[in-house]
Amino acid sequence: MSDTTEEKKEMSFLDHLEELRKHLIKAILAVMVLTIIAFFNMDIIFHDILMAPSRPDFPTFTILCKYFNYCIGEMNFTLMSRTMTGQFTMHLLASLITGAIVAFPYIAYQLWQFIAPALHPNERKNVRGVVLGVSILFFIGILFGYYIISPLAIDFLANYKLDPSIENSFDVTSYISTLCMMALGGGVIFQLPVVVYFLSLMGIMTPMYMKQYRRHAIVVMAVISAILTPSPDVLSQLLMLVPMYMLYEISIFVSAVVYKRKLKEAE
C-alpha cells in the first residue's frame, strides 16, 4: 500500500515538472521570436531607443530645460567596442533583452497558468487580474527607469571627471548594461504594490506596520534614490524619490484593502 502511495506521489511530482516544462518552453519560444524580430530591427532600436538618453534632445532633458531651467549640452563621452566580437555580442544581448521585456506579459501569463491550478477557487478569486496588474506596473517601471533614472544617471556619469586630462571613453557593453540595469531596476521597483498585496494576503504585512515604519522606509528610499541617480542636485533626487514614495503610499492602501477584506471574511 505504501509503495502504491509513493508511486502516485512520484508520478504527481513528475507530472508537475512536465507541466512546468511546457510553460517554460512556451515562454522561451515567445522570447526567441521577439528576440529575432528585435535582432533584425536593431538599427532602429539602438539609435532611437538605446542611444536616445545620451542626447540633449531626449524628451526628459527637453522638459527639464523648458520648465525647470535644467539644461544640458552634448555629453562628453565616446562609445567604443574593444573586442573583435564586441559589437556582434552587444547586438545579440540587446536583442535578447528587448525580446524578454516585450514578452514579459506572456511570461507572467505562463507562470500564472502553472500556479493557478494549485490554488483553491477562493484564492484564485483573490488574485485574479494579477498578470495584468504585474505587467502594467512592470512597463510603467520600465518607462520610469528609461525616462527618469537612465538619462539623469548617464548625464552625471558621462560628465563626471576626476581631472580634466582624463577623457571619458566607454565600452558600448558598459553603456548598454547601465541603461538596461536602470530600466529593469525601475520595472522591479514598481512591483512593490504587488509584493505587498501577496504579503498582506499571507498575513505577513499589514497597513499598520507599513505606517509605523513609514519614516524608515523614506530613509531607505532616499538611499536607493542616491544610488540609482548619483547626480548630487536636488531635482534629480526628487524625480526619483517622489514616485517611490507614491508607490509606498499606494502599497499601504493595497494592504489596507486586503486587511479589511480579511476582517470581513473572519466575521
TrEMBL record:
Localization in the cell: Cell inner membrane; Membrane
Keywords per UniProt: Cell inner membrane, Cell membrane, Membrane, Protein transport, Translocation, Transmembrane, Transmembrane helix, Transport
Classification via InterPro entries: TatC
Membrane topology, as annotated: Multi-pass membrane protein
Transmembrane segments: 27-46, 88-109, 130-154, 174-201, 213-232, 238-259
GO CC annotation terms, alphabetical: TAT protein transport complex
A GO biological-process term: protein transport by the Tat complex
GO molecular function: proton motive force dependent protein transmembrane transporter activity
Keyword Cell cycle assigned: no
Keyword Protein transport: yes
Quaternary state and interactors: Forms a complex with TatA.
Protein family: Belongs to the TatC family.
Cited function: Part of the twin-arginine translocation (Tat) system that transports large folded proteins containing a characteristic twin-arginine motif in their signal peptide across membranes.
Protein name per its UniProtKB record: Sec-independent protein translocase protein TatC
Annotated gene: tatC
